[in-house]
Write a structure and sequence with these properties.
- The structure is a single chain.
- This protein is mainly α and 391 residues long.
- It has one domain.
- Helix content is 61%, strand content 3%.
- The strands form two sheets. It has a two-stranded antiparallel sheet with strand order 1-4.
- A hairpin with a 5-residue loop joins strand 2 and strand 3.
- Helix 4 runs antiparallel to helix 5, helix 6 packs antiparallel against helix 8 and helix 12 crosses helix 15.
- The chain is globular, with a radius of gyration of 21 Å.
- This is N-acetylglucosamine transporter.
């Protein structure tokens, strides 16, 4: 990682300055702020339902955050690599893409290693690892294929994944199914990764596992196609109108497909790809209309979006550190009057945040919001100083 004092963010989540969309920065910032909010409640035992993931089939607003980010990665690739594609996308570009992907994967692996650094039980996959793989594959696809080919590839991935999970018998089970521990994706995870290296609460499968990364690439492809549309020479009003229309149709397609291939984040089902992709298109269309089109570049009219931009331009940095710092705090012990010890994170929450609240869910939400506000202060300072940490 390196620190830059000029505005030219990484292509992983942020377009280069010359072709930057402020609305894309803001939409990314909203997504990352939401990610920090749901990942850092004050008390994991008391969370409002919309801030939790669906138990299995179905979805909540929280289930949309990760696919929104992968969608944004796809959109950003078209801005960051658009010029390189026109120049043929040579070996040097591919090397940079591979290097960034490896760096992201290793950052995610480090989070999984910390603090035990036990290679025998470390989780191999994770959020940053999936972002790395989606970025790698979608970048190479963008450099070597046309929008039409990308559309066909998206269809093949989604239909193929649907057939894989609903038609192919699961070894050791004998029939296809979508149950948590006996579906085909879970079988691949525990066969290749082994139970020692998957998500510990799930025990024998991983929500960011190997097979489910295939449709996650489809989410990135939805972003690629959206980015190609936004970079076209069409009128801005026409762009927004079509984004809204297509976004509604894609969302509807996901809801219809849900009837026979349930929306499921853990499996990253094809219906989930369409639902989240369609809603992401609608969200970006709104941001694009209000920030880039209606504001017309007027700084004063765009000021409301700047807090989200501050989150968006350092998205990977804040996600990584917001996961690392609470783990460090949990290692620091604070002695209590009764002789017991609590970790620093719990001590701060119980001492300064929870006491004013009678409802533990409100206290837990206040803890999460406090964490987001602290990061906003840090990121706002970085934004003002034009400090961009690139991966």
């Amino acid at each position: 990682m390196q620190t830059s004092f000029t505005y030219q963010p990484s292509s992983i989540g942020t377009p280069v300055a010359s072709t930057r969309l402020l609305s894309l920065d803001a939409f990314r910032g909203i997504t990352v702020a939401g990610m920090i909010l749901v990942n850092n409640p004050g008390d994991w035992g008391h969370i409002y339902a919309p801030l939790e993931h669906a138990h299995w089939h179905g979805w909540t607003p929280t289930d949309l955050i990760f696919p929104f980010f992968l969608f944004i990665v796809g959109v950003s690739i078209t801005y960051a690599l658009g010029g390189e594609r026109e120049r043929g996308g040579g070996k040097g570009v591919v090397q940079k893409i591979v290097k960034r992907s490896i760096t992201l994967f290793l950052l995610g692996l480090f989070l999984n290693f910390f603090p035990k650094f036990d290679i025998s039980t470390v989780r191999v996959m994770g959020v940053l690892q999936r972002i790395a793989l989606v970025y790698l594959v979608c970048s190479l696809i963008f450099l070597r294929t046309s929008p039409r080919q990308q559309g066909w590839l998206l269809a093949i991935l989604l239909i193929g994944y649907w057939l894989l999970l609903t038609v192919v018998p699961v070894p050791g089970v004998g029939y296809p199914n979508l149950e948590p521990e006996s579906n085909f994706a879970a079988w691949v995870d525990r066969t290749i990764l082994t139970p020692a290296h998957v998500y510990k609460p799930a025990k024998v499968w991983d929500p960011e596992g190997l097979i489910s990364t295939i449709p996650a690439i489809g989410t990135g492809l939805v972003g690629l196609l959206t980015g190609r549309w936004l970079r076209s020479n069409r009128d801005a009003t026409e762009k927004v109108a079509w984004l809204f229309a297509v976004g509604c149709l894609v969302t509807l397609g996901g809801l219809i497909w849900d009837g026979f291939f349930p929306i499921n984040k853990a499996l990253w089902t094809s219906s989930y790809v369409l639902l989240a992709g369609g809603l992401a298109m609608l969200g970006l269309a709104l941001c694009y209309w209000f920030i880039d089109v209606q504001a017309g570049g007027a700084t004063g009219r765009q000021r409301w979006a700047m807090p989200f931009v501050a989150f968006g331009v350092n998205a990977i940095t804040v996600f990584f550190l917001s996961g690392l710092i609470p783990r460090i705090m949990s290692l620091i012990k604070v002695a209590q009057p009764d002789g017991s010890e609590v970790n620093l994170r719990d001590y701060l929450y119980r001492t300064f945040i929870a006491p004013p609240f009678t409802d533990p869910k409100n206290a837990s939400l206040a803890g999460a919001l406090t964490f987001v506000l602290i990061w906003f202060g840090i990121l706002w300072w970085m934004w003002k100083k034009r400090v961009i940490v690139k991966v």
